[in-house]
Each structure stands twice: as structure tokens, then as C-alpha cells.
């Protein structure tokens, strides 16, 4: 590849090719990722999103990482769907604090049509404030996905979570194919796809390779790829698992950037446990989006002031949404 030639967008990565990337010396891997990153993005800009739980707790799924599962003993109080006025207030605050995208998450296996009506009202209101919109509501039918598109939804988040091989150890109430089917519905409706995974759930290196292969080999690369670090919650089955090492996490960010050059790679959940130095390495490795605010659904996140201080130290600017509108990818987001 010549100095000015952009890397080819591929959807046919083999596990061996991805393993070879993971096995590169750390400096070589990060250099390659940063070089590719600069082909598509300003290396000193980060897109900022805010995530709000609009309906918390009592989810019928058994995800082993999640405090919101009714099957886990995380002592999380069940809450009803937030009122529209409260969502609007939160969105206005998010915009004032520098967010360009407002993400809304509901603890559902899948939304009922009645609940979807209320979420659509929220989407329309948030877009009226001047923010991009993203929701994560669980599984969707084709008809529900089209209704979200008609309402003007910008992004739909539906994470693969982990590799197909390890998935059954984390979740049994929803299949991997269920997740892939929902992503297909979202793509077919021409809604931007936000899909990534969670690291540090006791998975092996081979599972991280397989997860990234699944994401990179989707018919279209996700527009946003959130890479979450497990936030361990007491009362969930994954509380007490061995943590992922910081440099291994950075490697995953770098490989994601190389595999999906035009995707926005979001440094997502788990930043509250990361040092400033680890986050700086993640930005160097190709991460160019974060969630802003002191809460991510039900877990802690660094507050806006700390993030602003870190950005100032690194010379990073927060990007407006239109900077991250990418060209359609031929053959082509919050949260754990």
C-alpha cells in the first residue's frame, strides 16, 4: 500500500490473519493502527455521546454481566420507562455538556409496540434538540425497525458481546443468531449500526479474535464499534472474574481499527477503571469516541470535568457529529 492509498475495506478476514495482528510487537501494532486511523479521521478529535437508561431493571434475559437481569442478584431497583419530559431535560443537559449523540437504553428482551410508540416520541424530541439519536431496545422485528427508521433514528445499538464460541457461557436466553438477525433488520432499514462487544468476561484471546472477526466480516462494518471493558457488579455471575490487562485491551482497540478502518471505535464502558495513560493509548490505537457523563445505564463513568481535563492534556478536541458521517461502505454504537 502506498503512502497515500487508503486501506482496502474487507469483510473476509480469517482468524489466522487477525491472530497475526494480535501477535505483532505492541509498538508495531499501534503504529499500524494509528497510521490507518489518520487515513480516515482527525487523530486529535473524539466524538462524544451520552447514554441514558430510559427503562431500568427486570430484564428477562440472563446475561451474566448485567445488573439489570431479573435472573441476577444485583439488588438493582426496577424502574418504569422514563417520562418524555425527563428524557428531553437529560438530552438538553447532554448537548450543553458537549455531546453530539444521545443514546437511550431500555432493559427489554424486545420492545412491545406500545412501548415503541413512547420511544419514538423520545427520538423525535431528541432530534428536535439537535442531537443524533441512538437507541438500544433488544431484539427488533422488521416492522419495528422500519418504524424507527421512519421516526428518524440515526443509530441502533445491538452488541454481539463476545465470540460465538464463548457466547453460551454468558447468555442462554438469546442466541447469537438472534443478535445477527436484529443487525440485519437494522441494516436493511438503512439505520446506522452500532455493534461491538465486552472484554474481560473470562474469555480467551481466541474469543477476542473471533468477536472482532464477526464484527469485521458483517456484510457492512458497523458504523460505530463500542469496545466495552466489563464493569463487574456484585450479584452477577461474572463478578470476580479475572480482569483483562490494560495492554491487552489496547491491542483489541488497535486490531478493531485495522479491521474496520472507517468505523468509529468507541472506548465505552469500563473507563472509570482505566488510568489516563491507558485511555491515551486507546486513542493512539484508534479509539475516537467515548460516552460522556457520570453514568452508563447502571454503572459508573468518569465525569465530564475529568474527561475535559484529559482531552486538554492530550490536545484532543470533541468532534461535532457531521465530522463522523462516513461514505457508505461497499458490501457493508451503548453499552454493557
Summarize this structure as a short list of keywords or feature phrases.
336 residues, alpha/beta, two-stranded antiparallel ribbon, disordered C terminus
Number of helical segments with 4 or more residues: 11
* Largest pleated sheet: 10 strands, parallel
> Tally of extended strands?
12
Q: Label the structural class.
A: alpha/beta
Helix content estimate: 25-40%
Percentage of residues in DSSP E strands? 15-25%
Poorly predicted sequence stretches spanning 5 or more consecutive residues = 294-300, 321-336
Overall, the morphology is: globular
Mean pLDDT: 84
Describe the structure.
- The chain has eleven helices and twelve strands.
- It has helices spanning 15-22, 26-40, 84-96, 113-129, 142-150, 164-167, 176-188, 205-216, 246-259, 276-284, 304-314; strands at 45-55, 101-106, 132-136, 155-157, 192-194, 197-199, 224-229, 264-267, 289-292, 295-296, 299-300, 317-319.
- Strands 1, 2, 3, 4, 5, 6, 7, 8, 9 and 12 form a ten-stranded parallel β-sheet that branches. The protein has a two-stranded antiparallel sheet with strand order 10-11.
- Strand 1, helix 3 and strand 2 (101-106) form a beta-alpha-beta unit.
- The model is unreliable at 294-300 and 321-336 (pLDDT under 50).
Amino acid at each position: 500500500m502506498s503512502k497515500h492509498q487508503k486501506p482496502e475495506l474487507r469483510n473476509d478476514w480469517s482468524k489466522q490473519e487477525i491472530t497475526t495482528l494480535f501477535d505483532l510487537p505492541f509498538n508495531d501494532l499501534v503504529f499500524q493502527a494509528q497510521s490507518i486511523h489518520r487515513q480516515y479521521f482527525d487523530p486529535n478529535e473524539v466524538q462524544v455521546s451520552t447514554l441514558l437508561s430510559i427503562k431500568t431493571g427486570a430484564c428477562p434475559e440472563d446475561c451474566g454481566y448485567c445488573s439489570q437481569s431479573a435472573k441476577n442478584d444485583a439488588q438493582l431497583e426496577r424502574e418504569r420507562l422514563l417520562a418524555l419530559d425527563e428524557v428531553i431535560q437529560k438530552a438538553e443537559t447532554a448537548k450543553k455538556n458537549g455531546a453530539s449523540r444521545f443514546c437511550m437504553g431500555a432493559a427489554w428482551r424486545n420492545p412491545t409496540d406500545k412501548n415503541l410508540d413512547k420511544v419514538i416520541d423520545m427520538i423525535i424530541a431528541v432530534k428536535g434538540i439537535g442531537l443524533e439519536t441512538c437507541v438500544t431496545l433488544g431484539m427488533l422485528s422488521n416492522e419495528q425497525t422500519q418504524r424507527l427508521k421512519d421516526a428518524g433514528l440515526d443509530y441502533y445499538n445491538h452488541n454481539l458481546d463476545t465470540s460465538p464460541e464463548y457466547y453460551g457461557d454468558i447468555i442462554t436466553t438469546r442466541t447469537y443468531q438472534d443478535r445477527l438477525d436484529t443487525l440485519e433488520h437494522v441494516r436493511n432499514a438503512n439505520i446506522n449500526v452500532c455493534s461491538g462487544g465486552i472484554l474481560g468476561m473470562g474469555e480467551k484471546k481466541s474469543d477476542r479474535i473471533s468477536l472482532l472477526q464477526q464484527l469485521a466480516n458483517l456484510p457492512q462494518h458497523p458504523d460505530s464499534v463500542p469496545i466495552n471493558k466489563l464493569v463487574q457488579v456484585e450479584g452477577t455471575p461474572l463478578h470476580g472474574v479475572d480482569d483483562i490487562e490494560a495492554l491487552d485491551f489496547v491491542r483489541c482497540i488497535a486490531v478493531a481499527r485495522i479491521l474496520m478502518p472507517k468505523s468509529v471505535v468507541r472506548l465505552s464502558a469500563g473507563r472509570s477503571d482505566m488510568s489516563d495513560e491507558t485511555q491515551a493509548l486507546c486513542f493512539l490505537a484508534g479509539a475516537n469516541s467515548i460516552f460522556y457523563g457520570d453514568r452508563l445505564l447502571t454503572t459508573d463513568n468518569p465525569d465530564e470535568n475529568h474527561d475535559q481535563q484529559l482531552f486538554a492534556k492530550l490536545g484532543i478536541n470533541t468532534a461535532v457529529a457531521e465530522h463522523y458521517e462516513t461514505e457508505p461502505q461497499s458490501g457493508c454504537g451503548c453499552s454493557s
